[in-house]
Design goal:
single chain, 2 strands, globular, dGTPase activity, Deoxyguanosinetriphosphate triphosphohydrolase-like protein, PHydrolase_assoc_dom, dNTPase_2, dGTPase
Length: 425
């Protein structure tokens, strides 16, 4: 198929099916427009405003008082990137945007740190994974549609749920890395997952989900560095100093690229970025510096998206690319540039000593909150989760309800509930 202009099939009729059939409230909207609207109006999306992305909101840096991204603003920016990239490749833009808006809904308070603590607590009831939680939230927890059998969540289309699924396999079934902790469905959510993945080719990730995943990578790699500069945590001059550069490359090899990647390849990727005329070689918080930094973020996003669009079109031609008709092609050099940016933010923002102290405290909050809810439930649970707890058939199911309750909290509400239940401020 490479190099051809053959047009793949458009969306098949089953892609707009919903788990629970329902009539349109207002004629004229497409199924995917309805999906996008449902996610956009969800309480789960609003709660992301209270979940930290990387830099804690309100922190004072030496340059200026930053207004960094939250999980909500990150999701909105990811959605803008994904919508435009998807449209350029022939995807339905509303479908891709719905997936991008959904991709972080299942993240608990305190981000990946909270995810780790919840996974330890839930080890004997199926574990915890933010992406599997997103599917659970979309199909079960977020109140929107009810059937005689219970809630069906937002009742999105099959294609929208598939597009929001980064890891279409259960725990321990990663197709290439058995040790991976990434998975996309809990065992008790298998019925709807199997319906979503009906006729899908194995564990292959649909094209829209690949666009969403790359848009997520682009948005957070670029914006985390921007927020780090705004907050005064990143000194651009360090990227020219050899000891610091090697530290960046080691973080990249530990977390963002294959471990056997040659540091020289990462050095070349970083140097390509440093050589761009728009690269911010300094930052002092002035209006001019802010404008130059904003231009740099725009240039980086355009660079990463255009590289993927061009490579994918080269491989698959000019037709409409949807569902399982293509794979998103991102050049290796572009992935290395993106990985280097992730490593810069990781090293200089996330690995700061005060951040590690904060993360340790956050893990204690989640662990103690889980312990307190286990001892007192259904006391302490929100009305929605109290009802689910009362109807749960066994201890395993009751523990999953407690996990769902904690995962739904914001950073602030988690600390507030922890203080109320434990008496520890």
């Amino acid at each position: 198929m490479a190099g051809t202009s053959q047009t793949p099939p458009a969306y098949d009729p089953t892609s707009v099916d919903r788990w629970a059939p329902e009539p349109d409230k207002r004629p004229g909207r497409t199924a995917f427009q309805r999906d996008r609207a449902r996610v956009l109006h969800s309480a789960a999306l609003r709660r992301l405003a209270g979940k930290t992305q990387v830099v804690t909101p309100g922190t004072m840096g030496p340059a200026w008082d930053a207004s960094p991204r939250t999980r909500l603003t990150h999701s909105l920016e990811c959605a803008q990137v994904g919508r435009e990239l998807g449209a350029a490749l022939g995807c339905d833009p509303d479908l891709v945007e719905a997936a991008c808006l959904s991709h972080d809904l299942g993240h608990p308070p305190f981000g990946h740190n909270g995810e780790q603590a919840l996974n330890e607590f839930a080890a004997d009831c199926g574990g915890f994974e933010g992406n599997a939680q997103s599917l659970r939230l979309l199909t079960r927890i977020e109140p929107k549609r009810f059937t005689p059998e219970g809630s069906v969540g937002l009742n999105l289309t099959r294609a929208a749920l598939d597009a929001a699924t980064k890891y279409p396999w259960p725990r321990g079934a990663h197709p290439t890395d058995p040790a991976s902790r990434k998975f996309g469905v809990y065992e008790d959510d298998r019925p709807v997952f199997d319906w979503v993945r009906k006729d899908a080719p194995g564990t292959r990730i649909c094209f829209e989900a690949q666009v969403m995943d790359w848009s997520d990578d682009v948005a957070y790699s670029v914006h985390d560095v921007e927020d780090g500069l705004h907050a005064g945590h990143i000194d651009p001059n360090c990227l020219h100093a050899e000891p610091e550069r090697q530290d960046v490359f080691q973080v990249a090899r530990d977390r963002y690229v294959p471990a056997d990647t040659d540091p020289a390849e990462l050095a070349e990727a970083l140097d390509r970025l440093l050589a761009q005329e728009w690269w911010p070689h300094g930052y002092d918080g002035t209006a001019v510096a802010q404008a130059r930094l904003k231009d740099a973020t725009s240039q980086l996003i355009g660079r990463f998206c255009l590289a993927a669009e061009t490579a994918t079109r080269t491989a698959y031609g000019t037709g409409r690319l949807t569902r399982y008709a293509a794979e998103l092609v991102v050049p290796r050099g572009t992935r290395m540039e993106c990985a280097v940016l992730k490593a810069v933010a990781d090293l200089y923002v996330m690995q700061r000593a005060e951040q590690e102290r904060l993360r340790a405290d956050q893990r204690v909050v989640v662990a103690e909150l889980a312990e307190a809810l286990t001892a007192r439930a259904p006391d302490g649970l929100d009305p929605q989760f109290r009802a689910l707890f009362d109807r749960a058939p066994d201890d395993r199911a009751r523990k999953r309800v407690i996990v769902d309750q904690i995962a739904s909290l914001t950073d602030t509400s988690a600390r507030s509930l922890h203080a109320r239940l434990t008496g520890h401020a």
